[in-house]
UniProtKB/TrEMBL annotation:
GO molecular function annotations of the record: CoA-ligase activity
Provenance organism: Dactylonectria macrodidyma
PANTHER family per UniProt: ACETYL-COA SYNTHETASE-LIKE PROTEIN-RELATED (PTHR24096:SF424), LONG-CHAIN-FATTY-ACID--COA LIGASE (PTHR24096)
Domain of life: Eukaryota
Domain AMP-dependent synthetase/ligase: 28-298
Protein name: AMP-binding enzyme
């Protein structure tokens, strides 16, 4: 039997810099970004923003990596936001710049004066890659005016946070479940660590139909997948039938999705028209999936909730220490101390554990402890 060496690594068929990481699902052959393209474009935005005026810690309403490279903080808003909602977020976050798409440009222009955001710090973002359809008649600049020259951007060194564990990189606003929206702080360390959980990831394909202003879309498609080398096919909007067609055509392996899409996958007759056998993993979040699924993580007929701990979670609520205190617990070692005081030493799991199909027993029913050990 041949045994493969641990030191053997797969040889890529192309330079890693030329791997496609963002692909337009409607025009995949002509409209895409490689990792190298993505880095250079982000550096051009970062250098342009620095020259336009922000300093480390400024809050900026959308493009993502360029803002972080410039030393700013990203905050994203839903295109469905009204004037009052956007004005609240601009004021609460203290945003220094805003980049708005065509559908929300009028809202941004009307909301900005309410919070003192100068008109010359609002930029229009159009789906056109060339930027020829500029600003829909508004007297503001197009986002491409921010781009620094390529030659200068290639030499640009982006801002490194002094302490990534405590330096905020993103503000995501909550969905008003428990009151007015609160800014949720995510650190550089949290986003930088997220991709490291699967160092030896195999080549996969995923598709993005979730909004990039949302934490779920950012974490998967901007923070994680470029780092791990997973190509992402980008849809301009979520259309279920087009999604199924993309999964079929591009052999998508991983779906990062929301409960409404999972429900449609389970019940829609459209699914039978497409080959979805390539899908190996479905990651569902952003909202409860279903009552019966939620009940599986709680005792029968008892209400409950899950508490999570880890370096990729939130830093806290923006300028809201009271809400942070109510929603989070910072007591390192508390669970270990609790276990030490209540569990006998022989009950401790040492060296991990193994799942088995069944408990080995002799015909009389006695457990074979030696086999288990």
């Amino acid at each position: 039997m041949s045994i493969q060496s641990h030191w053997v690594v797969p040889i890529p068929e192309t330079s890693p810099q030329r791997w496609k990481i963002f692909i337009n699902a409607e025009n995949p052959d002509q409209n895409f970004l490689t990792l190298s393209d993505f880095r250079l474009l982000s550096k051009r935005i970062a250098l342009g923003l620095q020259r336009a005026g922000p300093w480390p810690g400024d809050r900026i309403l959308p493009a993502f990596k360029g803002k972080l490279m410039a030393g700013g903080i990203f905050t994203g808003a839903s295109p469905a936001s009204g004037k009052a909602e956007l004005a609240y977020q601009l004021k609460d976050s203290g945003a220094a710049f805003a980049i708005a798409g065509n559908s929300s440009l009028s809202v941004a222009v009307e909301a900005a004066p309410q919070v003192g955001l100068p008109r010359n710090r609002i930029y229009a973002f159009h789906n056109s890659a060339t930027g020829t359809e500029r600003t829909n008649g508004y007297d503001i600049r197009h986002w491409t005016d921010l781009l620094a020259p390529t030659a200068e951007a290639e030499k640009f060194h982006w801002v490194q946070p002094v302490d990534p564990r405590s330096t905020t990189c993103c503000l995501h606003y909550s969905s008003k479940t428990t009151g007015i929206p609160k800014g949720v702080e995510i650190t550089h360390y949290a986003y930088g660590l997220d991709p490291s959980w699967r160092d030896n990831i195999q080549r996969q394909r995923t598709i993005c139909f979730m909004p990039m202003y949302h934490a779920a879309g950012q974490t998967a498609f901007i923070a994680n997948h470029p780092k791990t080398g997973i190509p992402s096919y980008i849809m301009p909007a979520c259309n279920f039938e087009k999604l199924l067609k993309c999964v079929h055509n591009f052999k998508i392996t991983t779906l990062t999705t929301a409960p409404s899409i999972v429900l449609a996958l389970a019940k829609s007759p459209l699914c039978s028209k497409f080959d979805l056998s390539s899908v190996e993993e479905v990651l569902c979040g952003t909202a409860p999936l279903a009552n019966e699924v939620s009940e599986q993580v709680a005792e029968p007929k008892a209400e409950g909730e899950q508490w999570f701990s880890g370096p990729t979670l939130i830093k806290g609520y923006w300028r809201n220490p009271k809400a942070t205190l109510e929603a989070t617990v910072e007591k390192d070692g508390e669970i270990i101390e609790w276990m030490e005081s209540r569990a006998a030493k022989y009950k401790w799991l040492m060296g991990g554990f193994t799942f088995v199909d069944s408990i080995p027993r002799i015909p009389s029913g006695k457990i074979l402890r030696r086999v288990l050990r």
